[in-house]
Each structure stands twice: as structure tokens, then as C-alpha cells.
Amino acid sequence: MELSDIDLNLLVSLEVLLQECNVTHAAQRLNISQPALSAQLARLRLAFNDPLLMPAERGRGMTPTAMGHSLKEPLSTALKGLKQLVRFQPSFDPKLDSRLFNIAASDNAMIALGTPLLTKLQTFSPQTLRFIFGQPQKDQIATQFERGEIDLLIDDVRLIPQNMKSRTLFRSGFVMAQRQGHPRGLAPLDLETYCSLQHLLVSSDTGNPQGYMDEYLSTLQRSRNVFVTLPQLSLVPRTLQSGNLVCTLPASLLVHFADGLDLFELPFTVPEYVLSVAWHPRNHYDPGVTWLRELILEIASV
Q1: Which candidate, 247, 253, 251, 254, places its Cα nearest to that of 229?
Q2: pLDDT at 135 over 70
Q3: Handedness of CA 229, 158, 137, 276 (dihedral sign)
Q4: Which pLDDT band, with edges at 50, 70 and 90, does 2 fall under?
Q5: Domain at 99-163+278-300: CATH architecture
Q6: Identical fold at 99-163+278-300 and 174-271?
Q7: Which of 18, 170, 183, 224 lies 20 to 30 angstroms, CA to CA, from 155?
Q8: Which letter, b or e, does each residue of 157-181 get, where b requires 16 or more Cβ atoms within 10 Å of its Cβ?
Q9: Is the overall model pTM greater than 0.85, yes or no?
């Protein structure tokens, strides 16, 4: 007989029958009728090809057969293991458990959240927890999630692969930054002026990268003069302060570099920048991943 050949509920009934050696008492414990339990016993006898329980020679009740007696202890052990299995709830304690977390976080994400996040993570056990941050590889993210190579992605919501679960960390409008004392002056921007300025674009793409502003301006049949493209946001402040370039970025990021820069509202309306944290659906109930993403959400809300 194979496991698939028998209803596991019958084994629960058999354990009680072997303990009580009385159909009436066993039926009461199982909260079923005596005829229903007798029918189950008949099925068990067929499955094991053995009577399992025989009428007692004296008085009421039943006596286990040799087969029934030999089944009693291993059956109890097996059912106890199954009960523990179905009741199992995974847990995670960041102060006690060991775990390696891999987080793909964009340059923008690290500028916005990196310092407070790293400060908070250091309050947990450095002997048992490790955190590896890496730059997201746009064409590899979905595959990395599928392979379990990354636990979380923190990036622009537009770059999160389909079918991944995500939560918004924050939203921000865009502003243009220029150095203080820029020859353009402090006048409000108009579309013509904006397009004619020499722009700095932040992008890790190679070839001929396009930014959000370029995508939007193309819908207006306009374009701007992207003079230089840099791979890292941290290079922006000194580059702007050393010349006459301008740069358009989410306001929530530029405030980290506001010293020495003037910020201006754009002369057109574009969708907000949305930074999100994402994870694979199979990790939705993983207590470790849940703990880390809730920690990130908490820091982003401050």
C-alpha cells in the first residue's frame, strides 16, 4: 500500500481506536457517529489487509491484533510529526537568526535611504546577519528574482518587473537644479529656456540613454540639449557647481545636495517619481524578507 492509497483522516481515526479499543468511546473523541467510525474501521481493515481490532474475549471493547499493536507507536509518532508540520509557522529574529540578504538598490535609492538604513541595520547582530547591496541590472532583475539571487529591489517603480509584489516608499515631483550664481539668473523657467540649457543626465545606460524628461519632451515634439551623461548621482553636485550645466532630478533627492544649488519648478507637468521596494511573490510570507522590507518602509516614512 502507498501513502496515496489511503485517506490520512483514517489514520487519525485508527490512532484513537487503538488508544480506546472501543468504537463508541473513540467515536465520541472524534466527534463522529459510531456507524461512521465503524465504516472507517472497515476501510482500514481493507487497506491494511488485517482486522486491526478484534472483539475482546471478555466484556465490551476490542483488542488490537498483532498488526494493530505494532502500528500503535509508529502511527502516533508519524501523526505527531504531521501535526507539527501543518502547524509550523516560520519565524525570524534579527537579533538571533543567521541570514544573508541580497538587496539590489539603485543609486537614487541609496542616496535617499542608504545612510539611515545602514545605520539601523548596524543595531542588529553583525555576527549573524549580512547585507549585500548591489546596483540593479535592468535586463537581469527578473531572472535574479526567479533564481533567488536577490531578496529585495529598491528602484523606480517603472523598472520593477511585472508580476513582482511591491510597496511604494515615497513619491516626489521633479525640479531643475543649477549652481548659485548661474548666468541664467533666478527667473522662472519656460519651456524654450529649459530646452536650450546644457543638461546633465544621470544614467547607467550605455549608448544613447534617454531620461524621463527626454521621454516626456518627445511627446511635445521637443528635445533638450543633454551635454553630458554621468553614471552616478553623487557626481552631480560638484559637476553643477563647477560650471553652467543644469540637472533635473526628483526633489526628494536633490535636497540632499541643496547647498550651493538653486532649485526651480519645471515649466511643464510630468508624472511623479515613485521609489518602490519589490520582492518575488514566493517571498511574500518569508519572515526574514518581511522584516527587512517593513524596516525599509519604516525608514522611508520618516
Answers
A1: 247
A2: yes
A3: positive
A4: low
A5: 3-Layer(aba) Sandwich (3.40)
A6: yes
A7: 224
A8: beebbeebebeebbebebbbbbbee
A9: no
Bigger pLDDT: 266 vs 139: 266
Q: What is the 3-state secondary structure (H, E, C) of 193-261?
A: HHHHCEEEEECCCCCCCCCHHHHHHHHCCCCCEEEEEECCHHHHHHHHHCCCCEEEEEHHHHHHHCCCE
| pLDDT at 53 exceeding the cut of 80 | yes
Cβ pair 171, 272 in contact under 8 A: yes
- The pLDDT mean for the chain works out to 89
From the options 3.40.190.10, 3.30.565.10, 3.90.226.10, 3.40.50.12780, give the CATH code of 174-271.
3.40.190.10
> Which H/E stretch holds residue 295?
helix 287-301
pLDDT digits (tens, 9 = 90+) for 174-196: 999 999 999 999 999 999 999 99
Domain ranges of the chain: 3-86, 99-163+278-300, 174-271
Query: What amino acid is encoded at 282 in this protein?
Result: R
